[in-house]
Amino acid sequence: MAFQVSKSGDVMVIDVEGQLIVGNRQELKHKILDELDGGERKFVVNFSETGYIDSSGLGVLVSLSKKIREQEGVLRLASLNEDLRTLFELTKLDTLFEIADSREEALEGL
Amino acid sequence: MDQELILELPNDVRSIGHAVDYVMSHCSDCCAVAKRLDLNFRVGLTEALSNAMLYGNARDPGKRVKVEVTVRMEQVTARVTDEGRGFDPTTIPDPTLPGNVDKPGGRGIFLMKSLMDEVLFNEEGNSVTLILRLEEESPDVVGGATGGATA
């Protein structure tokens, strides 16, 4: 599992490969907070290569969303498969996040 | 065709992914309902292990977590036991209520109950049993547990 960070224009794109769970959530958190501290304000987390997310993974996304908003930034999520979308719907987190069907859609208008 | 697995894990959250993958690899005979296993059981077991290590054992690296899994054609059962003092699962607030949705924590037990058919805690609160039924005709692929959650 790994997090690949790339830049598209002025948007930081983080691809989550494998899982986002309690064992690796801090790695994602530190990567994004480092970029936020460095002045980046626009983020897309792309889940097209993600197998599953647990409650700790969901929690770190909630925490990051709040910190990014506090810095007047934007966080969008992209490419949730059916299973991941189910988790967001069960927890009602689909109401909290901007969720795009694809990486490209998430980048539009940012 | 029944399979029984017993694992003893160090109290290290980095071991959870590998342990869940190992258990899942022994569930391959239940491929008819692989989708339900892949999401519901995988996430449910991850949550149980995470709770045991972070809250039950209070992150103490000297403690361990025991996992007992029984795989049958009709259901998968996992009992996760920590060495902590236990807790009262009924005191956990609903994370989907307004005011709780934007909190970073508090979704673990909710997800377990939502994704599994039964979630049973022992009296001490340091052991949880997860049951997922695997009947092919089960209408529930994900979410909406068929048997209701019991705390």
Q: List how many beta strands of chain B DSSP finds.
A: 5
Kindly report the oligomeric state of this protein.
heterodimer
Number of helices of chain A: 4
Q: Which stretches of chain A are low in confidence, meaning pLDDT under 50 for 5 or more residues running?
A: none
Shape of chain A: globular
CATH-derived architecture of chain A? 2-Layer Sandwich
Radius of gyration of chain B: 15 Å
In angstroms, what separates the terminal alpha carbons of chain B? 30 Å
Strand order of the largest sheet of chain B: 1-2-3-5-4
Largest sheet of chain A: 6 strands, mixed
- Structural class of the secondary elements of chain B? alpha+beta
Q: Can you give the mean pLDDT of chain B? A: 87
Order of helices and strands of chain A: EEHEEHEHEH
Biggest beta sheet attributes of chain B: 5 strands, antiparallel
Task: Summarize, please.
With 110 residues, chain A is an alpha/beta fold. Chain A is built from four helices and six strands; from the N terminus they run E-E-H-E-E-H-E-H-E-H.
What are its keywords?
heterodimer; A: 110 residues; alpha/beta; Transcription Regulator spoIIAA; six-stranded mixed β-sheet; 39% helix; globular; B: 151 residues; alpha+beta; Heat Shock Protein 90; five-stranded antiparallel β-sheet; 3 helices; 5 strands; 27% helix; disordered C terminus
Give an overview of the whole structure:
The complex is a heterodimer of chains A (110) and B (151). Chain A is an alpha/beta fold. Chain A has one domain (2-107): STAS domain (Transcription Regulator spoIIAA, 2-Layer Sandwich). Helices cover 39% and strands 31% of the residues of chain A. Chain A has four helices and six strands. Chain A has helices spanning 25-37, 55-70, 82-90, 103-107, and strands spanning 2-8, 11-20, 42-46, 50-53, 74-78, 98-100. In chain A, strands 1, 2, 3, 4, 5 and 6 form a six-stranded mixed sheet that branches. In chain A, helix 1 links the parallel strand 2 and strand 3. In chain A, helix 1 (25-37) runs parallel beside helix 2 (55-70). The longest helix of chain A has 16 residues, at 55-70. Chain A is globular, with a radius of gyration of 12 Å. The termini of chain A are far apart. With 151 residues, chain B is an alpha+beta fold. Chain B has a single domain (3-133), classed as Heat Shock Protein 90. Helices cover 27% and strands 23% of the residues of chain B. Chain B has helices at 16-25, 34-56, 108-115; strands at residues 3-10, 64-71, 75-81, 118-121, 127-133. Chain B has a five-stranded antiparallel sheet, with helices on one face. Mean pLDDT of chain B is 87; it is low at 144-151. The A-B interface holds A 1, 19, 21-24, 52-56, 58-60, 62-63, 66, 83, 86-87, 89-93, 95-96 and B 13-17, 35, 38-39, 42-43, 46-47, 50, 53-54, 95-96, 101-108, 110-111, 114-115, 142-143.
